């Protein structure tokens, strides 16, 4: 309220306002120039109204007595806290105190202390204006790991912003205080960084429209609740849970939409004041306009329309003072000037409420694009029972970030060709919203593995060998990630890898020696029955004679095996499979000649003592041949029996 003169400046006008702090225990503060005698008639009316409405509050009574006596308020030179109004909410207090003029229900009362239309509109893009630039956003809740569905949403927003030279915003929706954690937020930031999705504004990268955590934007939301209440577009609702449940059950019985039909939409100021005085918990509901059709033109879904009569007045502020999701999202997107909202189709139902809030605030709606869900191969909702579902898990499993990004981009989008392998620059250049499909995408782990393998193959050989060496060292299989022996082992496994982490199992299969298990298997018994033991015995005999390893080293593997086959009268698989079993203990694996050379090199290096960690389970060549000799002896004894 305005009207007081400063004593030393009669031509100036001092503003007198009512400020309230906290959703449940507001404090009313009057600002004055020096003494009550300078208050205008409106200010006196305000004080009188507060005195009347606030009952016997000792703070108000004391202040009122001093006001009546004309005493000077010197506790603060220019600011006087003249009333503490117990159990009154911000807008309930201001509406009841600032006017006696009633509109429709309690929300019809006006207060001069509330923000003006222009102040609200200046914080966002006006309804009839245009966005200055493309601004997209990813707004996750830090309540767990970054799911692949969320990662795809982030990617599509990032690609669209980068394609059009716009901004990509990261906003953390952490109003669920019971489940949101800073640890989850940090993990999400790591996952986005691993994917290469850098953001222009967000946590730790402040911009002009912060803060970028919803938990830090409470004052902003309260201001917009105030604005809607002042404009008679929202009102307090004191309905209990039992009353709301009864309304829902009645609607089900009558087969009508389960919308709010409580009395508080049309309650009088006196009815509201009575509940406030009792301290009854309440929410704020948005007043949904009747008999209207709300329509959006979705980039993916096309025209989508809703009838407002099927919605009913919905809550925007809970009784604990926390704003609800749809209200927060609308205010944040508007004030952050988000031009395009690209999100999962499960949010399509929220768009009606958000569109109504945009329109009520006179703010421009963004363009919407609702992307289909990601399903498991069995066409059910993708969940943990289908394996890894979070970005961090795929990182831990050894997938490359470039492959993951490529794979996510193709979950619901294509460039119109058969091409499947894209660089990041190619994705940016080719991405468009009109190429996103309506049908659900299927998360195919087989295809992801193939795609990751293609990216591995495209790596320079030296870089790929270095990656494998680092993997082995980080897994605790090797003591070093480099060296001639490490490089030769890496060369044996890289060709068939789909993931870098697969190299661990490949190395273990080269280093161990499961001879007995192999011979006892179905496949092993078939070769034994076909005469494989003759080859195994001859290898063991040559080693006992001291001729095996020198013969291989002097003649070379190819010449030596040819001579052995000629000696035993066998060739082809009846020669090479028994030899593989004899040296590797397995029926499958890398090139046998290369493996034998590797084992010989490890033998010359002291059986690889300086390279292999204990966890690798390395069985040296000498130990292998000793085991082979023992198995042959046992087989001979068994045959004799």
Keywords:
single chain; 641 residues; mainly alpha; three-stranded antiparallel beta sheet; two-stranded antiparallel sheet; 10% strand; disordered N terminus
Overall 3D shape: elongated
How much strand? Answer: 5-15%
- Note the total helix count: 26
Task: State the distance separating the first and last CA atoms.
Answer: 112 Å
Provide the residue-averaged pLDDT: 82
> Strand order across the biggest sheet?
7-8-11
Structural class: mainly alpha
Give start-end ranges of low-pLDDT stretches.
1-119
- Strand tally: 15
Structure description:
- A hairpin with a 3-residue loop joins β9 and β10 (302-307).
- This protein is elongated.
- By secondary structure, it is mainly α.
- It contains 26 helices and 15 strands.
- The N and C termini lie far apart (112 Å).
- Strands 7-8-11 form a three-stranded antiparallel β-sheet. Strands 1-2 form a two-stranded antiparallel ribbon. Strands 3-4 form a two-stranded antiparallel sheet.
């Amino acid at each position: 309220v305005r009207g007081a003169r400063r004593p030393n400046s009669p031509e100036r006008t001092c503003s007198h306002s009512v400020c309230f702090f906290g959703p449940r225990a507001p404090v009313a503060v009057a600002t004055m120039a020096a003494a009550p005698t300078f208050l205008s008639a409106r200010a006196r009316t305000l004080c009188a109204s507060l005195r009347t409405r606030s009952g016997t509050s000792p703070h108000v009574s004391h202040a009122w007595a001093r006001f009546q006596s004309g005493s000077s308020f010197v506790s603060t030179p220019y600011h006087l806290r003249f009333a503490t109004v117990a159990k009154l909410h911000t807008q309930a207090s201001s509406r009841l105190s600032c006017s006696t003029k009633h509109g429709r229900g309690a929300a019809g009362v006006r207060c001069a202390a509330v923000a003006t239309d222009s102040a609200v509109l200046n914080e966002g893009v006006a309804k009839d204006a245009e966005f200055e630039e493309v601004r997209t956003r990813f707004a996750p809740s830090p309540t767990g790991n970054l799911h692949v569905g969320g990662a795809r949403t982030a990617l599509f927003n990032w690609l669209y912003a980068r394609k059009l030279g716009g901004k990509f915003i990261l906003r953390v929706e952490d109003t669920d205080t019971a489940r949101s954690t800073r640890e989850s937020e940090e993990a999400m930031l790591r996952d986005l960084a691993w994917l290469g999705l850098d953001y222009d504004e967000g946590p730790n990268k402040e911009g002009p429209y912060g803060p970028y955590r919803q938990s830090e934007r409470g004052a902003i939301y309260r201001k917009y609740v105030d604005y809607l209440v002042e404009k008679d577009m929202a009102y307090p609702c004191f309905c209990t849970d039992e009353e709301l449940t009864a309304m829902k059950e009645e609607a089900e019985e009558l087969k009508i939409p389960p919308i709010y039909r409580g009395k508080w939409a049309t309650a009088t100021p006196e009815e509201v004041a009575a509940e406030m005085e009792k301290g009854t918990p309440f929410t704020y509901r948005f007043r949904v306009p009747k008999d209207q059709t709300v329509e959006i033109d979705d980039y993916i879904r096309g025209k989508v329309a809703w009838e407002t009569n099927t919605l009913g007045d919905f809550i925007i502020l809970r009784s604990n003072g926390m704003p609800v999701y749809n209200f927060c999202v609308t205010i944040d997107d508007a004030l952050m000037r988000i031009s395009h909202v690209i999100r999962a189709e499960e949010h399509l139902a929220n768009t009606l409420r958000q569109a109504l809030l945009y329109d009520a605030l006179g703010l421009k709606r963004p363009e919407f694009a609702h992307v289909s869900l990601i399903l498991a191969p069995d066409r059910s909702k993708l969940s943990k029972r289908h394996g890894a579902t979070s970005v961090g898990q795929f990182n831990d499993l050894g997938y490359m970030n470039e492959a993951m990004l490529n794979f996510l981009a193709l979950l619901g989008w294509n460039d119109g060709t058969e091409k499947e392998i894209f660089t990041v620059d190619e994705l940016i250049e080719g991405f468009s919203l009109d190429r996103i499909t309506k049908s659900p995408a299927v998360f195919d782990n087989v295809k992801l593995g193939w795609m990751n393998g293609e990216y591995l193959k495209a790596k320079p050989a030296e870089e790929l060998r270095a990656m494998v060496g680092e993997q082995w060292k980080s897994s605790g299989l090797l003591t070093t990630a480099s060296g001639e022996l490490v490089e030769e082992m890496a060369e044996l496994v890289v060709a068939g890898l789909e993931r870098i982490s697969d190299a661990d199992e490949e190395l273990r299969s080269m280093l161990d020696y499961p001879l007995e298990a192999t011979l006892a298997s179905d496949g092993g018994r078939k070769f034994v029955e076909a005469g494989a033991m003759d080859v195994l015995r001859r290898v063991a005999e040559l080693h006992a004679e001291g001729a095996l390893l020198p013969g291989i080293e002097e003649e070379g593997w190819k010449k030596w095996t040819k001579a052995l086959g000629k000696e035993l009268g066998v060739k082809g698989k009846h020669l090479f499979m028994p030899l593989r079993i004899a040296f590797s203990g397995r029926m499958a694996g890398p090139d046998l000649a290369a493996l034998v050379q590797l084992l010989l090199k490890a033998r010359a290096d002291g059986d690889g003592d300086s390279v292999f960690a204990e966890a690798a389970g390395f069985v040296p060549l000498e130990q292998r041949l000793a085991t082979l000799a023992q198995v042959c002896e046992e087989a001979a004894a068994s045959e004799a029996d």
